C-alpha cells in the first residue's frame, strides 16, 4: 500500500517533551480516544521504559477497543553487549502488549562513537538484534533512524548500512528522523529519495521545527516516496516543536491529493486541535495554518469586497473542509463589505444599499481612532450596528454609580453602588467584590436580575487591560482599553470600553456585555 500515506501521532510521547506540556494517564487516554475517532493510523502512547505513568497508560489502553488506530509503544535498541531478550527496557516494550513497537537507533557516527561510545559494528548489531527479537515476538516494528539527515550528510555509506540492517532484520518501516530540525527541504528530498531507492521496506519521515520547516520537510519527503509521516497535534514537542499534524494532514489529503486521512474526517481537524489544546491547558494559537482563528480571517476592505463576491479569490480552501470558519474583521481598515458581511455573520440583516451603512463605517473608524478594537469585541460591534440602524432600544439606563475601597493593612474590600432604571421602575443596589470591576459587575447584575432573570446565568470570565498611550504622564493619565469576556454557560461574547479612567472603561464594557446578552434574548 505504498500509495497510502499513514499518519503516526506522537503527541503523547514526543509532544510531551515540549515545555509546559504534561498529560495525566486519564488525559492521555482521552487524547488517544480522540485521535482514534479522527482516524490517525498510529498512536504512540509513550515509552514504558521511562516512567510508571506510561506503563499505566499501556495497561489501560490494552483494555480498550481501538477502531481506526494502532497503539505503539516506544523505546530504544538494546544496550551494547547485551542480548535483546535480556534487556529490561526491551522486555517492557513486549509487556506493553501493543501491536506496534517503535524503536530508535543511531545513524550518525558522532553519536555512535561519542554518545553510545561503542563501535560502528556493534551499533548495527544493536539495531538488527532488537528488531529481529521484536518481530519474533509478533510485533509490527517501526525503526526510527535518529539523526538520519545529519548522519547521512556526515557519512552516507554508514547511514545506509544502519537502515539496511533494520530492513533485513524485518523492520516494517525505516523512518528518517531530522532530530535536530535543521535540515532544508532539498536535503530531505535527496536523502528520502536515496532511502526509498535502496530500501525495499517502507520509508517514513519524522521532522522537527527548529528552523520553521517541520511541515515543509515532511511534505518534501512524501514527494520523494515517504509513506508515513510522524508528528504531533498543534506541533507540540521539544524546543520549537515537531511537524504539526494539523498542517501536514490537510496538505497531504487536500493539496497533494494523496490517500491518507479521509476528507470526511478532516472536517473534524479544528475540533481535534482545540480538544488537545484544552486537555493540555493551552490557549489555542490563533495564527496556526488551517485551524487557527485567523486562518480564514479577512480584514482589508478590498480583500473583503472580493471575498464577498468570490470567496476563493482570497482563500486557498473553503474553511469548512477542516471544520474552521470564515471570519470578517472590522477595524479602521474596514470597507463597506466588512460591515455587511460581519453584520450578516452576526444575524443582522443589512446589505450594500442599507442607508446607514456609510455612517456605521464612519463611526467604526472614529471609534478605532479613539482606541476601540472591534476585532476582538463583536458584542460591542453588534450593539453599535444595531443602534445605528435603529433596531435596538436600551433595555435599561444607568442613572448613577459609585465605587469605593475600604480596609486596613491586612485586608480591603471594594464596594460598588449602582442605580438603574427599567421603564418607570428603578433599582438601587450595593455589592462587594474582589476589586472595583468585580464589585461593579456584581452590583449591576444584582440590580437587573429582578427585571431580567436571564442575567442570573451570566458571568464575567476574562478581563484584559491595555494602556494605549503610556508615554503620557508616565502612563498614569493614559487612555485605557478594557476587553471583557462574558458567558451564560452556553455562549461567549466580548465587549470593549475605552477611557482615561480604567473604572469608566470597565463600566462601558460591562454595560455592553449585559445589553448584548439581553439583545440576544
Q: What is this structure's SSE topology?
A:
Blueprint: E1 6-9, H1 25-38, E2 42-46, H2 52-61, E3 70-76, H3 88-95, E4 100-106, H4 109-116, H5 120-136, E5 140-146, H6 148-154, H7 156-169, E6 173-178, H8 185-198, E7 202-207, H9 214-223, E8 228-231, H10 245-255, H11 263-266, H12 269-280, E9 297-298, H13 301-309, E10 327-328, H14 336-345, H15 357-370, H16 378-388, E11 397-407, E12 412-422, E13 425-433, H17 436-449, E14 459-467, E15 480-487, E16 492-499, H18 502-520
Helix pairs in contact: 1-2, 1-12, 5-7, 6-7, 8-9, 9-10, 13-14, 16-18, 17-18
Would you kindly provide a written description of the structure presented here, covering whatever features stand out?
The protein folds into two domains: 6-261, Aldolase class I (TIM Barrel); 397-520, Alpha-isopropylmalate synthase LeuA, regulatory domain (Double Stranded RNA Binding Domain, 2-Layer Sandwich). The two termini are 55 Å apart. Strand 6 (173-178), helix 8 (185-198) and strand 7 form a beta-alpha-beta unit. Helix content is 40%, strand content 20%. The strands form four sheets. Strands 1-2-3-4-5-6-7-8 form an eight-stranded parallel β-barrel, surrounded by ten helices. The longest helix has 19 residues, at 502-520. The protein is α/β, with parallel strands linked by helices and 521 residues long. The protein has 18 helices and 16 strands. Helix 1 crosses helix 2, helix 5 (120-136) runs parallel beside helix 7 (156-169) and helix 9 (214-223) packs parallel to helix 10 (245-255).
Amino acid at each position: 500500500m505504498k500509495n497510502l500515506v499513514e499518519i503516526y501521532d506522537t503527541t503523547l510521547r514526543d509532544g510531551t517533551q515540549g515545555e509546559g506540556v504534561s498529560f495525566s494517564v486519564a488525559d492521555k487516554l482521552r487524547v488517544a480516544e480522540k485521535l482514534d475517532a479522527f482516524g490517525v493510523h498510529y498512536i504512540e502512547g509513550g515509552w514504558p521504559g521511562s516512567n510508571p505513568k506510561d506503563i499505566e497508560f499501556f495497561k489501560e489502553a490494552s483494555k480498550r477497543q481501538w477502531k481506526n488506530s494502532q497503539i505503539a509503544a516506544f523505546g530504544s535498541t538494546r544496550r551494547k553487549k547485551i542480548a535483546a531478550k535480556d534487556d529490561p527496557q526491551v522486555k517492557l516494550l513486549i509487556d506493553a502488549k501493543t501491536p506496534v513497537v517503535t524503536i530508535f537507533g543511531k545513524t550518525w557516527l558522532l553519536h555512535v562513537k561519542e554518545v553510545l561510545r561503542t563501535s560502528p559494528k556493534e551499533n548495527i548489531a544493536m539495531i538488527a538484534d532488537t528488531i529481529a527479537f521484536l518481530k519474533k515476538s509478533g510485533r509490527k516494528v517501526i525503526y526510527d533512524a535518529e539523526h538520519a539527515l545529519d548522519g547521512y550528510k556526515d557519512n552516507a555509506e554508514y547511514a545506509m548500512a544502519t537502515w539496511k540492517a533494520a530492513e533485513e532484520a524485518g523492520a516494517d518501516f525505516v523512518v528518517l528522523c531530522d532530530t535536530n530540525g535543521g535540515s532544508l527541504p532539498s536535503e530531505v528530498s535527496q536523502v528520502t529519495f536515496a532511502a526509498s531507492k535502496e530500501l525495499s521496506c517502507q520509508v517514513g519521515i519524522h521532522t522537527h521545527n527548529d528552523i520553521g520547516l517541520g511541515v515543509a520537510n515532511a511534505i518534501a519527503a512524501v514527494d520523494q516516496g515517504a509513506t508515513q509521516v510522524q508528528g504531533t497535534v498543534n506541533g507540540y514537542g521539544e524546543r520549537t516543536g515537531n511537524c504539526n499534524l494539523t498542517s501536514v494532514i490537510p496538505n497531504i489529503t487536500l493539496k497533494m491529493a494523496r490517500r491518507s486521512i479521509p476528507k470526511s474526517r478532516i472536517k473534524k481537524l479544528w475540533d481535534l486541535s482545540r480538544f488537545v489544546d484544552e486537555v493540555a491547558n493551552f490557549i489555542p494559537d490563533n495564527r496556526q495554518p488551517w485551524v487557527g482563528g485567523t486562518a480564514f480571517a479577512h480584514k482589508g476592505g478590498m480583500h473583503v469586497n472580493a471575498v464577498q463576491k468570490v470567496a476563493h479569490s482570497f482563500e486557498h480552501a473553503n474553511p469548512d473542509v477542516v471544520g474552521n470558519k470564515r471570519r470578517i474583521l472590522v477595524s479602521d481598515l474596514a470597507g463597506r463589505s466588512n460591515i455587511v458581511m460581519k453584520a450578516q455573520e452576526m444575524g443582522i440583516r443589512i446589505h450594500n444599499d442599507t442607508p446607514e451603512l456609510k455612517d456605521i463605517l464612519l463611526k467604526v473608524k472614529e471609534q478605532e481612532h479613539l482606541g476601540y478594537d472591534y476585532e476582538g469585541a463583536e458584542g460591542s460591534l453588534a450593539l453599535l450596528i444595531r443602534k445605528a440602524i435603529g433596531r435596538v432600544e436600551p433595555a435599561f439606563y444607568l442613572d448613577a454609580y459609585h465605587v469605593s475601597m475600604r480596609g486596613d493593612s491586612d485586608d480591603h474590600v471594594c464596594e460598588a453602588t449602582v442605580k438603574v432604571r427599567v421603564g418607570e421602575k428603578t433599582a438601587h443596589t450595593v455589592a462587594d467584590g474582589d476589586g472595583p470591576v468585580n464589585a461593579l459587575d456584581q452590583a449591576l447584575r444584582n440590580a437587573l436580575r429582578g427585571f431580567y432573570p436571564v442575567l442570573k446565568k451570566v458571568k464575567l470570565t476574562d478581563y484584559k487591560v491595555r494602556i494605549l498611550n503610556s508615554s503620557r504622564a508616565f502612563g498614569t493619565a493614559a487612555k485605557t482599553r478594557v476587553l471583557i469576556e462574558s458567558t451564560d454557560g452556553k455562549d461567549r461574547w466580548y465587549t470593549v470600553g475605552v477611557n482615561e479612567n480604567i473604572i469608566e472603561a470597565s463600566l462601558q464594557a460591562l454595560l455592553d456585555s449585559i445589553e448584548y446578552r439581553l439583545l440576544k434574548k
